[in-house]
Design a protein that fits this description.
heterotrimer; A mainly alpha; B alpha/beta; C mainly alpha; A: mainly alpha; two-stranded antiparallel ribbon; globular; C: mainly alpha; ABC transporter involved in vitamin B12 uptake, BtuC
Chain lengths: 314, 506, 349
């Protein structure tokens, strides 16, 4: 028990929680934005992979870190355009199209990466984002090092969650997005073009997914390797349900998951080899599944989620 | 007539091989109420969709106050003062009333929703026209009548001067309809111009100043309501005199089905509350009511897709606890579902597959489907029931609504069912098809089937039923004989009048 | 621009669709090959050479096609009933580890004629079991099975990884995490001597034929199709939706589990976490390329295996990353989706 307490009391844990949470926050926000407009984006896993790769590659080729981040977002947006083309214009099954985008984006990332970086014994690295201490706040005992010494993208992610919450619930555009996800015919009847809204939401959401991936290679780690996204995208999809499609809850949900993840990492080192490490690694996936079971019935799903919209066709 | 606020000039629109609108012109004056009368498929909805910018016309134009409206732009139509009240409400149940009303009313790039101003404005409009709503209520929690109010408020909030209502009374009770038309007349008196789409002659005659009749996509006539009659309009609408079959008198046979105190609870809601009814061989029992009052549950219960939670059902004298679809079909219950496309047939499957799906047992041995027999069965239905537009192996989706209904009727009637359950059997069909469907139902009655007819169409029920019960809020009224039935009496029953009587009696 | 449903689909168009899709995917991937600085046609020629240029290559391609056909069937059966089983990868691993466990612990001494069928059944059962969890969650809590089956893939691989690291670890493997091998008697007979090609391929093809028959001719086939196309209509017609879904899940999960069992018993003899090269995910592509038709699955499985095996050889000689095969396969899923769309709709104006 005291081991558990020691872990909880270490500022390192809480700092790690924010680091682990950042890609989840960004990815969940991205998926949430798409779904609010009525489009399930299962391309997320592949888009995160591509974002991780292209962000890293950009920086590896001499650009600065923020440029890498931006390139990842743009690339994500392009895949979003692809997904929107398939699901919005053609109205294809969002499940299958999303999986197709994931398979394509992931394999394309590996291809580009191998092409750009020849096989080497140790993977090449870049200098990632360094933590920045917020003046004043970071000097507070315990709380300071725990919460206010993070890399810049983490601050960006938290800020984005709040911005998105405001956008969705407090602006006319947000209302248009919500209406499109609930009833695109109603949106159209009010002079909103649901196709355009969906395109915009999917592209913007996918850009966020690209950023989520880039965080992995530009901040959490310093190199790219295949399969590094490790199902984080799918966890984000589960988190969207868990958060009832609300950005502020997505932020809390991601932090909660990250807490369990960070906690298990530390518990692993404390317990050593007594318990197989794989059991710990399973925790996030199992938690996601549990969260889905818990929330699926309660959550108010956007009514038009996964329903293609065709003008004049009801 | 004063200067028209709206002019639709020679509009044509073609979908594939069908000409939905053929050179239609129409004008509307300030403060005027015009009814657009026509059968399903006459082109009413297409014309209004063109007006509202959902569709671009192939030829022709729309003028508002003499200014041409750019085609295919709903936003421009809204800005020009056109408001549309859709038959299937264009509303989002998960959002609040205020959200539903204000969507799209502000610039999308504005950094903040002006909710306070919006609320004030909404309340003012609601006061002015006597349309009471709670702006913060979740829309899905409102009754159908209230939702329609929101739909109208939405148009008024957009400063509509021309209001188009698509079949506004389709989902309303008699009382609600009367109230609606009072409101509409009040709006016209306050200077709004209204078009309402309808195929109900009564309401057209009582509410409209002028009637424009469409048939087969063409403008066939225009009359002032003061200068025409229901009979003339009916003939103009249908284009020929269609005689619906007449019910011959009969003596009911044995009781084949009896329900006493039956309740159904599904999804945490009491859908049917202790209902009593019985069916006799050779007799039609009509259940009249506005949809959404438990009809669907009643139909599901007897078609074997839903279990009762209380009460007794006796089928051919035997107590039945849980009726499965298989049992129902095997017992000789023919079933005509309310929603042809969703329940009655699987569009992507072939006609023969749809013909046998609910009686697979008779067309299979050891788990294998007997295709030959099934195709022959489908062919028999096609021949005997005059199903046009398909062969046994063509996809069912290709059939028109009327022909799909004939297929469904055929597969149920061909084996002479002892009970026929017909839920809204003529909904959405044109006059000719309605007559054919009614003929088949009366045929079944003549041959001794007990028919349960669930309908929201007063004329249909009065024409076909021997006895009539009304369904309101999951309760059934006591039955009345068809000779006692009148539109007024049934209207009162549908409003739940008998419940108050019962309450007084206690 | 608008789309209009086509009222009639010609048979020729339906058959041509996957070919058009594959051709488009190859064309797009060709651009990537050009970017990599290699001649496109030669690259594709070498893929073909690498896959069929020698006896060894051809048998290798057929060997690789075997699990792809099985996972492809798993996906096709499920998708037809609108059960989105994306968990074939995990189910494959469950089948594989079960076989390794049963053969190395209990059944090793049993003669082949008994042991092999028994093991194949156990493998299939393990796959079923893993799919029944998300199906239960869908029926009980209305949880979308796409996400749960995807997440369970990771859980399944971690469980396998844990087992081959601990209780099922092969002590003779110099510390590498791999399972104890199945008994020699459990290895599937070869179709051709001096090759890796084993009777798993025949099993897969026969199962495809059986499934095609079941879908076309049986009551269950008709009911599961109805349930997939229109659940409400199917329920109205008396199709037992839950039971149908459970049976479909058993077939789908069973086929994926079988893929794992066959891979262990036919090729490798033991389980590692590299046993599957994404067969579970590629199976989705195979199924879609086949338009969910079991015969088509055999051909699509062959195509996919050709890409994977051929790209290895091509990659070595032309210096193009062998990931090009994954790109081609993924692209052909996307182009197939689009191609199928245009067999159902036409563009108006």
């Amino acid at each position: 028990m005291s081991a558990v307490f020691d872990i909880l009391a270490s500022a390192g844990l809480w700092a790690a929680v924010f680091r682990i949470a950042t890609p989840l926050i960004l990815g969940t926000l991205g998926a949430l934005l798409c779904e609010r407009a009525g489009v399930l984006n299962l391309g997320i896993e592949g888009i995160m992979t591509f974002g991780a790769m292209i962000g890293w590659l950009t920086v590896y080729n001499g650009a600065d870190l923020w440029t890498g981040f931006l390139v990842a977002a743009l690339a994500g947006g392009l895949f979003g355009l692809l997904h929107a083309g398939l699901t919005v214009t053609l109205g294809l099954s969002q499940h299958v199209a999303g999986l197709g985008v994931t398979l394509f984006a992931a394999s394309f990332s590996y291809y580009v990466f191998r092409l750009a970086v020849p096989v080497a014994g140790t993977p090449p690295t870049i200098t990632p984002f360094q933590p920045i201490a917020i003046p004043g706040l970071s000097d507070l005992p315990f709380v300071g090092p725990a919460f206010f010494v993070q890399t810049p993208p983490t601050y960006v992610a938290i800020l984005l969650a709040l911005v998105l919450a405001y956008l969705i619930f407090r602006t006319p555009l947000g209302l248009a997005i919500r209406m499109t996800g609930e009833n695109p015919h109603a949106a159209e009847a009010q002079g909103i073009n649901p196709m355009a809204v969906r395109y915009g939401a999917v592209i913007a959401g996918s850009a966020l997914m690209g950023m989520a991936g880039a965080f992995l290679t530009l901040s959490a780690f310093n190199s790219f390797f295949p399969t590094m996204v490790q199902g984080r995208g799918w966890i984000c999809i589960a988190l969207v349900v868990f958060s009832s499609w609300r950005p502020e809850r997505a932020l809390l949900g991601a932090l909660l998951f990250a807490f369990f993840d960070g906690f298990q990492l530390r518990l692993q080192t404390v317990l050593g080899g007594a318990v197989p490490y794989q059991l710990f690694l399973m925790i996030p996936y199992v938690l996601s599944i549990a969260a889905l079971a818990l929330m699926a019935r309660r959550a108010r799903v956007p009514q038009a989620l996964m329903q293609p919209y065709r003008r004049g066709e009801r | 007539m004063n200067k028209p606020v709206l002019d639709i000039i020679r509009v044509s629109k073609r979908f594939g091989s069908t000409l939905a609108n053929d050179d239609i012109s129409l004008s509307l004056g300030k403060g005027e109420i015009v009814a657009l009368l026509g059968e399903n498929g006459a082109g009413k909805t297409t014309l209004m969709s063109i007006l509202f910018g959902h569709y671009v016309p192939d030829t022709g134009r729309v003028l508002i106050d003499g200014q041409q409206l750019p085609p295919g732009k709903p936003r421009a139509a809204i800005r020009a003062g056109i408001g549309m009240v859709h038959q299937h409400f264009a509303l989002a149940p998960n959002l609040t009333v205020l959200d539903n009303v204000t969507t799209g009313t502000e610039s999308l790039w504005s950094p903040r929703s002006r909710r306070l101003e919006a609320r004030t404005k909404l309340m003012a409009i609601s006061q002015r026209f006597g349309l009471k709503v709670d702006p913060d209520a979740r829309l899905g929690d409102l009754s159908v009548g209230e939702q329609q109010r929101v739909e109208i408020l939405k148009a008024l909030y957009n400063e509509a001067r021309i209001l188009v209502l698509d079949e506004p009374t389709a989902v309303l009770t008699q009382i609600e309809s009367e109230r609606l038309f009072t409101t509409l007349k009040d709006m016209a008196a306050q200077g709004l111009s209204l078009i309402f789409i309808s195929h109900k002659l009564d309401e057209v005659m009582s509410a409209a100043d002028r009637v424009v009749v469409l048939r087969g996509g063409r403008h066939v006539a225009e009359r002032r309501t003061t200068e025409t009659t229901k009979a003339e309009l009916a003939e103009l609408m249908v284009g020929r005199t269609v005689t619906r079959p007449v019910r011959a008198p009969s003596t009911p046979g044995e009781r084949v089905l009896e329900a006493v105190g039956v309740s159904v609870r599904a999804g945490g809601v009491d859908r049917l509350k202790s209902v009593d009814f019985h069916l006799c061989a050779g007799e039609v029992l009509g259940i009249i009511g506005v949809s959404g009052n438990g009809q669907a549950t009643l139909a599901q219960l007897l078609s074997g897709t839903l279990a009762k939670s209380g009460g007794d059902i006796r089928l051919f004298g035997k107590e039945v606890n849980r009726l499965s679809v298989e049992d129902a079909v095997a017992a000789g219950i023919g079933r005509i579902p309310e929603d042809r496309n969703r329940e009655g047939a699987i569009g992507e499957m072939t006609i023969w597959e749809n013909a046998i799906l609910e009686r697979l047992g008779s067309f299979a041995s050891r788990g294998l489907v007997d295709r030959k027999a099934a195709i022959a069965f489908a062919q028999t239905i096609i021949d005997q029931f005059d199903v046009r537009g398909g062969t046994p192996t063509s996809r069912t989706r290709l059939l028109s609504g009327g022909n799909m209904q004939k297929l469904i009727l055929g597969r149920n009637l061909i084996n002479r069912p002892r009970i026929l359950l017909a839920a809204q059997p003529a909904r959405g069909l044109d006059e000719g098809a309605v007559a054919a469907v009614h003929e088949r139902i009366l045929d079944a009655r003549r041959q001794g089937a007990a028919v349960l007819l669930i309908s929201e169409d007063l004329d249909e029920v009065m024409a076909l039923a021997d006895r009539i019960q009304a369904i309101v809020g999951g309760r059934l009224s006591p039955p009345i004989g068809s000779e006692e039935a009148s539109a007024r009496r049934l209207g009162l029953m549908m409003a739940g009048e008998w419940m108050q009587e019962a309450a007084h009696a206690v | 621009m608008r789309f209009e449903r086509r009222e009639h689909r010609s048979v020729a168009l339906v058959i041509a669709t996957p070919l058009i899709a594959i051709a488009s995917a190859l064309a797009i991937a060709g651009v990537l090959i050009v970017i990599a600085g290699a001649p496109v046609l030669e690259a594709y020629w070498r893929i073909l050479q690498g896959a069929f240029g020698s006896r060894l290559a051809a048998t290798e391609t057929l060997t690789r096609a075997t699990p792809l056909i099985l996972t492809g069937l798993a996906a096709a059966v499920a998708f037809r009933a609108r059960l989105w089983n994306i968990g074939a990868e995990g189910q494959l691993y469950f089948g594989a580890i079960t076989v390794a466990w049963a053969s190395s612990r209990f059944l090793g001494d049993m003669p082949s004629i008994l042991q092999i069928p028994l093991l194949l059944m156990l493998g299939a059962l393990a796959g079923m079991a893993l799919l029944l969890v998300p199906l239960w969650m869908r029926l009980r809590f209305s949880v979308d099975e796409v996400v749960t089956t995807l997440l369970l893939n990771f859980v399944a691989v971690l469980i396998v990884s844990m087992l081959i690291d601990t209780v099922l670890k092969d002590p003779m493997a110099f510390g590498w995490p791999q399972s104890q091998p199945v008994a020699d008697a459990a290895m599937l007979p070869k179709i051709l001597a001096r090759s890796r090609l084993h009777i798993g391929l025949l099993i897969a093809v026969v199962l495809a034929l059986v499934l095609a028959f079941v879908e076309a001719r049986t009551v269950f086939g008709l009911q599961s199709r109805a349930a997939g196309l229109n659940p409400q209509g199917a329920a109205y017609a008396g199709v037992p939706l839950k039971r149908t879904l459970v049976i479909v899940a058993c077939i789908s999960g069973g086929l994926a589990g079988l893929a794992g069992a066959v891979e262990v018993m036919g090729v490798q003899g033991y389980v590692t976490t590299e046993l599957s090269r994404g067969y579970g995910y590629s199976g989705i592509v195979v199924a879609m390329l086949a338009n969910l038709n079991p015969f088509g699955v055999v051909l699509a499985g062959l195509f996919t295996a050709t890409m994977f095996v051929g790209a290895d050889g091509m990659s070595r000689s032309l210096g193009i990353p062998s990931y090009i095969a994954d790109v081609i396969v993924a692209l052909s899923l996307l182009t197939m989706l689009i191609a199928v769309f245009f067999t159902q709709y036409r563009i108006r104006r």
